[in-house]
Amino acid sequence: MKSLGTKYILRLAAVTIALIVILIKFPDIAPFGWTIGAIIFLFLCELANILITERKRDTISARQSVNLVLGLKVGKILLSLLFLLIYWITVRMEIKRFSLVFLTLYLIYLVFDTFYLMSKEKEIKRKNYK
User: Fold this and answer.
1) 3-state SS of the chain: helix, strand, coil percent to 5?
2) Of 28, 59, 101, 127, whose CB has the highest number of CB atoms within 10 Å?
3) Does the pLDDT of residue 78 top 90, yes or no?
4) Nearest Cα residue to 71 out of 56, 88, 86, 89
């Protein structure tokens, strides 16, 4: 049986591939290269979140787990703002449209991450019940 992390990594890869296919079908949505970069950036952030939480799940307490998840969320937000800042400094064109596309991608991955954390919480409760 696959672990929860493996299942969500496969789902994350499927979501990322679907977003890239949609972007290829509609390349005029935003600057193509930067949008592909944003998708890959957000994929790597979520992948890191899953791998870190799966690696630490058995060695940390519940309080440390909450701190870890919140720290990862703050880190993702700061890195995302840094990504937008780098775009703004280097391109300076279509910043509003790219920011809107980036925010949409961020929210898609946030929904994905929320489902992962909810499933993880259910798994922990199920293990504690047994």
Assistant:
1) 85, 0, 15
2) 101
3) yes
4) 56
